[in-house]
Amino acid sequence: MGNDHRHLLAIADLGREDIIRLLDSARSFAEVSARPVKKVPALRGHTIVNLFLEPSTRTRMSFELAAKRLSADVMNFSTSTSSLSKGESLKDTGKTIVAMGVDAVVIRHKSAGAPRALTGWVDCSVVNAGDGMHEHPTQALLDLFTMRERLGGLEGLKVAIVGDIDHSRVARSNILALGKVGAEVLLVAPRSLLPEKVEEMGARVTGSMDEALAWCDVLYLLRIQMERVAESRFPSLREYTLEYGLTQTRWSRLERKPLVMHPGPMNRGVEIASVVADEVESVITGQVSAGVAVRMAVLFELLGGGHGG
Amino acid sequence: MADSVLIKGGSALLEPGRLTQADVLVADGVIRRAGKGVRSQAARVIDASGCVVAPGLVDIHAHLREPGMEYKEDVASGSRAAVCGGYTTVFCMPNTEPAIDNASVAEYVFDRGVDEGLCMILPHGAITVGRAGEVLAPMGEMGKCRAGVKGFSDDGSPLVDAEIMRRAMEYARTMGALIISHSEERSLSADGQMNEGYYSTFLGLRGIPPESEEIAVFRDIRLAEKTGARLHLAHLSTAGSVALVRDARRRGMEVTCEVTPHHFSLDESALMDYDTNLKMNPPLRSRADIEALLEGLSDGTIDAIATDHAPHAPHEKETEFDVAEFGVVGLETCLGLVMSRLVEPGVLSLEDALGKLTAVPAHIMEMERFGYRARLEEGEPADIVVFDPSAEWTVDPRTFKSRSRNTPYAGWGLKGKVTHTLFRGTVVVADGELVGAPETATLPARDEASTASTARAEGTKAKG
Questions:
Q1: How many CB atoms lie within 10 A of CB A207?
Q2: CA-CA distance, A262 to B78, in Å (whole number)?
Q3: Distance (Å, rounded) from C-alpha A11 to C-alpha A130?
Q4: Are B153 and B208 in contact (CB under 8 A)?
Q5: In Å, how far from its chain's centre is CA A94?
Q6: Distance between CA A263 and CA A4 in Å, rounded?
Q7: Does residue A268 register a pLDDT over 80?
Q8: Which of A206, A267, B235, B308 is the most buried if burial means most Cβ atoms within 10 Å?
Q9: CA-CA distances (angstroms) from residue B406 to A118, B321, B329?
């Protein structure tokens, strides 16, 4: 309780201005990453802990690089096991880490709400690097950054998000973020992969990939997981690809090609045909480099004291 | 023997459904006189002016955690919490460790209640051995032991297998037992953390759809109709469940049901901050469900109000939401919530609300079998609560007598505060404070208390 530090826990907590400000700030930091010496002294003397309690390589590396380019000191606390199975509670893990005098904890956790809970137990800033099926706010910010850089603006943009919306924190954060900046969102999936009343988050829903392809400016593909077959969410990967895959046939038929994005890692041959993946690769790797810039902007805003509350 | 007590000038529930200005004289553990202008040389006079005088509250659904999980609660701390909340009878659920699935454990829990001597602690028994849902527990023996177990439930878990539920009902009917259903279709609720809907989607928490409750309610109603068993449905939380009970009643079925204060006072939107004190099973539902529960209470479809008092230790709640235990304490806040959320807004009259907290649950549990009807009539056991219906107070978990503090109501202003509780004529709560109760687990005067209580029960002999 009584943690007065600034956090980034969810896109839901941000206003349109907050998002635009972070995207603008990320653009300046992207320039830093383009220099021969990719480092600024903005957060010198600050310590940031990456508390990754769920397997993750990309996001952890991205946060680590972002912190290092801001000259902050970084510690990594990674484990594939949950805090509970280690016998230590998240509360105690958090308190232990913060007792070492850190300024921010970047947390990845399999439980929705864990970052918010952590703010009650530690006396420092908390950044959500993905919590269960809840949110992944920096992913949404880097996705918006990429869309804005590639297409020039976000207002009125038509974004189709395809795949396992139910299990996706990336989808939830993107639905909210895109809604706040005035983009339109269409969710593309069978009903069995959509959470209840997701329309109330501000998105339309369709079961037709072809309808989505004809409509969208941005086609955002989510990673589909084999486990969902065992959960009776859809019959087989083969059928998923037939219905919702960005196959070579679908791609070549399109007169107006949308911007294709993917949070990675891609399942080539499942949600995206390998040939198409190669063709659109630059955008997807562009998302990765945008990730570093956006995370620099977030860490700088929370710790650098650049902006008021 | 307890000294005589005169409760003077209160508004007393002398008969069900009617409050009248009356005095109540208590001596030797029973009500001696109840009516206007009772004169007496009572050793003690309680000024009840402005207060309601009612039979001690009867909770048909609490978890007292003993044996096995005394770090959450035990019969001693649960008894103290109960009487401070106005309860003089608490039926406790058998999901203990070991489970209350045989006469020895049932008698152990019952005797622990007698030891404490603050209120009646009556265990429900498990339907199946170890609550594992496979082999029927000895309902006959548990019913005949001195704990006089009447209700059977695998509460905490549903009885998954419909065939076993059918046979349990048939057997219970023969044994004169009551089946209490924790209605949940687990294949729909597995891993669920909260009500399924917009809020679960927004928060990224696995949902528990209302249908998981309703399908099980429907199943157990149909099985009870088929088998002729008496069925009581625990903690109903959805509009669909209320409708199913209403329909069954229309067909002439004698099913009974209960609702908890948290299900009528809080909805799913309260979960936006992932407060684990709001995590319970069944989960907090929608506004529309609350409306249906209120309607069910006011039209009589819902018979009783029960706490589902479910204590948990801090380390079981100060965790990630999906790791936290389900449940909320309720013995010390129920009356206040009933007064503030049901009586004050006019959902229920004070008289009807009291009925759902006293005589109705007593009747559901057939407490008449040991001479208890939860009525303020001459010759009845003197289990009495006196409370100020207009006194406002703020919920402060630090003052709870329960060993656990997992309440979502901290800081809530409630109306209706217990001033006195009498158990078998002894004042156990006076001016809102626990009196004459030992802080230690065992009471020196155990034999006397034991005799007094077991005389009421059908039990045969004193603990040896």
A1: 15
A2: 55
A3: 11
A4: no
A5: 23
A6: 32
A7: yes
A8: B308
A9: 19, 14, 6
pLDDT digits (tens, 9 = 90+) for B12-65: 999 888 999 999 999 999 999 999 999 888 889 999 999 999 999 999 999 999
- A188: pLDDT strictly greater than 80: yes
Domains and CATH numbers, chain B: 5-53+381-463 (2.30.40.10), 56-370 (3.20.20.140)
> Which residues of A make CB contacts under 8 Å with B?
12, 82-84, 89-91, 109, 111-114, 116-117, 121, 131-135, 169, 172, 195-198, 200-201
- CB burial string B327-338: b at 16+ within 10 A, e below: bbbbbbbbbbbb
A113 and B320: CB-CB below 8 Å? yes
Residue that the structure tokens 């209320």 belong to: B242
Q: Chain B interface residues facing chain A, Cβ-Cβ under 8 Å? A: 196-198, 200-207, 209, 273-274, 315, 318-323
Active site residues of A: 58-59, 86, 108, 136
| A73-78: strand order across its sheet | A73-78, A47-52, A104-109, A125-131
Do residue B201 and residue A201 have CB atoms under 8 angstroms apart?
yes
* Dist. CA A158–CA A154, nearest whole Å: 9
Q: Taking CB atoms and an 8 Å cut-off, how many pairs form between chains A and B? A: 73
Contacting residues for B135 by C-beta, under 8 A, at least 6 apart: B128, B129
Domains located in chain A, CATH noted: 11-135+289-303 (3.40.50.1370), 138-287 (3.40.50.1370)
- The residue of chain A with its CA nearest to that of B318 is A91
* CB-CB under 8 Å, B197 with A197: yes
Give me the pLDDT at residue A226, please: 84
Q: How far is it, in rounded angstroms, from Cα A203 to Cα B360?
A: 49
Residue B218 CA to residue B241 CA, distance in Å, equals 8
ipTM: 0.94
pLDDT of residue A80: 56
Instruction: Give the pLDDT of residue B120.
Output: 97
Q: Using an 8 Å Cβ cutoff, are B216 and B158 in contact?
A: yes
Task: Tell me how far apart the 2 most distant CA atoms of chain A are, in Å.
Answer: 58
Q: What is the mean pLDDT of each run of 10 residues along chain B (464 residues)?
A: 85 93 96 92 92 98 98 98 98 98 98 97 98 97 97 94 98 98 96 97 98 98 98 98 98 96 98 97 98 98 98 96 97 98 98 98 96 95 97 97 98 98 97 72 37 38 33
User: What local confidence, expressed as pLDDT, does residue A85 receive?
Assistant: 54
pLDDT at B2: 53
pTM of the model: 0.92
Per-residue tokens: A8: 């980034």
Single-letter residue type at A117: A
